[in-house]
Structures are given as C-alpha cells and as structure tokens.
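Subject: for your reference before the review

Hello V.,

The reviewers asked for a structural picture of the protein, and I figured it would be easier to keep everything in one thread rather than splitting it across files. Below is the amino acid sequence we used in the manuscript, unchanged from the supplementary table.
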Amino acid sequence: MNINEVITTARDSLTVKRVYGDPYETNGLTVIPAASVIGGAGGGAGHDVKGQDGEGGGFGVSARPAGAYVIKDGEVTWHPALNVNRLVTAVGLAMVILLLTRSRNAKVHASRLAT
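And here is what came back from the structure prediction:
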C-alpha cells in the first residue's frame, strides 16, 4: 500500500459517521449514539545504498462509546456511557491505596505512642 492510499483510507475511516451513529426512535424518544474516535496515520519513503526505492505506511483507529444524545419533546439531553471496567479498576486501585496507607499510618501512630 503506498502512502497516498494509506492517507486516503485513514481519511475515509475518520469521518463523522464514526463519531455519531444513525439516529433511531424508541418510545417517543430520538436517540443519537456517539463515540470517541481517535486515529492516526504515518508513512515514509526512501531508498537503500543499492538504489532500490520503497515506501510504506499504516494507520490505526480506536473507538469507544461516549454516550448518546436523547431528544424528547424538543429538549436535547446528553447521557454519558458508563465504562464499568474503568470504574471497577478505579475503585480497586483506591482500595489498595487505602489498605496500604492505613497499615502504614497505624505503624506510625503506634511508634508515636510508644515514645
């Protein structure tokens, strides 16, 4: 794949259709799903000491749900997506920090009482 093809493919991949899904209606509501889309592309060309030319490139796209716009009676509201994995990781990390600092604080407190 040459560099121009990589850039064209990346440009076509990073469109507004990747960020906002098609609206749909349910129970009198219009829902427009949205995602956070990040991408990048790169490429290069060159030649070696034998005079052989070459070029190449690549691109990557990452997307995750961000939430949805909900339209009801002409009012638009934003409903963010909840990333349960991120929430569980954050709570677990907070618990580990709490347990580590709690035992350290108990040791410091006990040494102060002993003196």
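For the response letter, the relevant points are probably these. The chain is about 40% helix and 40% strand. The mean pLDDT is 83.

Happy to draft the paragraph if you're swamped.

O.
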